[in-house]
Write a structure and sequence with these properties.
alpha+beta; globular
């Protein structure tokens, strides 16, 4: 079955149109969401403008939205693409594109073979897509819109003088693959997929291996790819210059941009979580073309990832392709089968050729400025990762709360502890249940979440555990309810954007649209999104405002993963506060029924554990005479009556394997932190 409106009208007709929310409901919910972010005076000023807007200009703009909805498949689509992407003059590399890093293959694969398997898989997926043989997307049996899939292959974003645009290339011009290696670009032409997958992969692998073995490093000062990471105004000027240098440049650029997709054969070999995330996010900018619809990244050590251009497709759409890529690669790796001499692919063999570019002084100047911008931007950013493996979705569900909303509240508490104010927070919610639907903003901040953060941080002595736990549970419930409303097409931010776009040229803008609360509440200091797929080992993007964070997270059964990016705002520190918040929230929800003296008794028990360990360590360090017979040691140094409380169990679990002095240091540090920091909010009150 086809995946776009032109070839699958039945699917599109079965999907409801994105509704236009009720004006009064949107205004009331906006006021409720914005109130905790500002002072009482600021909010009251905005509230007066909101009420005036509803009484004057609002109904006229609302009527225009209803008229637009009647005339378009999706009243929001074009406006959202303009506002969020094509009018955005920021760097797509740092502020728009998203990246995935995939889990390791079950068996190591050489770079060329891995890249060949990925190319073969993507080509086969495209054939399925174009032959209408893909199963439809659905969530629990409910069909999801697949309109975005028509932009998945053979598209490229172009910088414009004032706005960008995306070109979709016909199949006849886009059967080739672009390959980037050592700063150079190649065009790889592959035959149609045959029934002998291993033979197809083998012949692609041979061509890629030649590229790897014979390509000389191009000096970075001649890199075309780094231009695509520049600010869009700068890239527009540089691209115009590039095209004017020679007709060969125009031809090479056309071939590069019209490719089905791009594969980057990277020279770096990322190992740590942070290295892998940075490499997938931006690397050094040379073996990339950030305007391409997607780039498959294959690193020298056999790790691989994905970088997606966001203007017309969302990460959730690309995950369908990515799951196929990973499944196919892991199948090939597990089979460990190499094509024999008798395995010959059908049709013409795969071939490649290098794309050449000419330079003049002006173009070289543009490239140098792009490199300086790229390096300065990388240096100005801080990317940190957190692998939190103390618990995950399974334990959160046992607390009878939503795992996603639980994590959202952890981010609220972590940010509040670091900055002492409530941040405007964006969580992406999908509206793909509607025709041509994309996303809506789920606002995480509520009056309850703000009150809970303040109760945990500012005045912990004024509320007991039960009261704090109730505030947290209500905050989580509010977030879950808001997200559910967004998925039903009843969000507030896209509606407010539509009302603003409904203004006609020359028409007076209502004072509401310039109000500091109205604009400031959309200054997303926390831009967040979750994709929890087992194929991922990394996932992220950049911040959307200069003084904010981009926080991508994954929720696994027994772990939580975070990728935090900011312009040196304290990404690593926020990760630490996140870990603290998660532990505190679990403690709060599982111990809310206890009185402070009960918790203190357990803390005292932990102190007894520490005392016992010190005594045991001291006695075991005393020298023995030849006539002395050492007393038999217990099975564990830390098992016995002194360690039978729940907190004591938690504190000593896993420490048996460490030498005594390391145990003492570790336990002392954890005990000190546990009492002085982690439980400071829990102990003072007796209410």
């Amino acid at each position: 079955m086809a995946v776009n409106s032109s070839s699958n009208p039945t699917l599109m007709a079965s999907l409801a149109k994105l509704p236009v929310p009720d004006l009064h409901d949107t205004v009331a919910r906006f006021a409720e969401a914005a109130r905790p972010l500002f002072s009482a005076d600021e909010f009251e000023t905005c509230l007066a403008k909101l009420n005036d807007f509803v009484a004057t200009q609002g109904p006229t703009l609302q009527a225009r939205l209803h008229q637009r909805s009647a005339e378009h498949a999706n009243w929001l689509e074009d406006w959202w693409n303009e506002y969020a992407y094509f009018l955005n003059r920021s760097s797509v590399c740092f502020n728009v594109n998203y990246f995935f890093g995939f889990r390791d293959t079950p068996q190591p694969m050489a770079q060329a073979r891995l890249a060949a398997a990925l190319i073969d898989s993507a080509v086969r997926f495209r054939s399925q897509l174009e032959s209408d043989s893909l199963e439809l997307d659905n969530i629990r049996g409910k069909p999801m819109c697949m309109y975005q899939y028509q932009y998945m292959f053979a598209t490229c974003r172009h910088p414009g003088e004032q706005r960008d645009w995306t070109e979709v290339y016909p199949r006849s011009e886009s059967t080739h693959i672009a390959v980037a290696h050592k700063g150079r670009y190649f065009v790889l032409r592959v035959p149609a997929a045959s029934t002998n997958r291993h033979a197809d992969i083998a012949q692609i692998e041979r061509q890629l291996q030649i590229i790897i073995d014979t390509t000389a490093q191009l000096e970075r000062g001649k890199s075309i790819g780094v231009l695509t990471a520049a600010l869009r105004d700068d890239w527009y000027t540089a691209r115009e210059c590039l095209l004017q240098v020679s007709s060969d440049n125009a031809a090479s650029l056309r071939v590069l941009e019209s490719s089905a997709f791009l594969v980057s054969l990277e020279s770096v070999a990322p190992v740590t979580h942070k290295e892998f995330s940075l490499a997938c996010h931006c690397s050094d900018g040379t073996d990339r073309y950030f305007d391409k619809n997607f780039q498959i990244l294959v690193f020298a050590n056999g790790r691989y990832g994905f970088n997606g251009e966001h203007s017309l497709t969302d990460a959730t759409t690309d995950m369908r392709l990515c799951n196929v890529l990973v499944h196919d690669v892991e199948t090939v790796a597990a089979e460990a089968q190499v094509a024999s001499a008798g395995d010959v692919a059908e049709g013409a063999p795969a071939t490649f050729e290098e794309l050449h570019f000419d330079y003049n002084d002006e173009l070289l100047g543009h490239i140098q400025r792009a490199i300086e911008y790229f390096d300065a931007t990388v240096a100005a950013h801080e990317l940190s990762t957190l692998v939190f493996d103390s618990f995950g979705k399974e334990q959160i569900k046992k607390m009878k709360v939503s795992p996603d909303a639980f994590v959202q509240m952890a981010m609220q508490l972590a940010y509040y502890r670091q900055f002492r104010h409530v941040p405007a927070t964006y969580e992406s919610a999908s509206t793909k249940a509607f025709a041509r639907g994309r996303t809506e903003t789920s606002r995480s901040v509520s009056a309850h979440s703000a009150a809970w953060c303040k109760a945990m941080v500012d005045h912990p002595e004024t509320t007991g555990l039960h009261a704090k736990a109730e505030l947290l549970r209500q905050s989580i419930a509010n977030q879950s309810q808001f997200t559910a409303q967004c998925a039903k097409g009843s969000g507030i931010d896209r509606h407010l954007l539509g009302l603003e776009f409904a203004l006609q040229e020359g028409e007076e803008r209502h004072a509401l649209f310039e109000d500091q609360v109205f604009t400031g509440s959309r200054h997303w200091k926390l831009s967040t999104s979750q994709i929890s797929d087992p194929i991922l080992a990394a996932y992220g993007w950049g911040e959307v405002v200069d003084d904010g964070f981009g926080v991508a997270y994954r929720i696994e059964n027994n772990a939580l993963h975070f990728n935090v990016v900011s312009q040196r705002m304290g990404s690593a520190r926020l990760c630490q506060y996140l870990a603290d918040a998660l532990m505190d929230m679990r403690f709060l929800l599982t111990n809310a029924h206890k009185q402070p003296h009960e918790i203190m008794a357990e803390v005292d028990a932990v102190a007894n554990v520490l005392t016992s360990i010190k005594l045991l360590s001291s006695s075991s360090s005393q020298p023995t005479t030849p006539t002395e017979t050492p007393a038999p040691q217990p099975e564990s140094r830390f098992r016995g009556p002194f360690a039978e409380t729940p907190v004591a169990h938690a504190m000593v679990d896993g420490l048996d394997r460490l030498p005594s002095n390391e145990v003492i240091c570790a336990l002392e540090a954890r005990l000190s932190r546990f009492v002085k920091e982690s439980l400071s909010w829990a102990l003072p009150s007796t209410s």
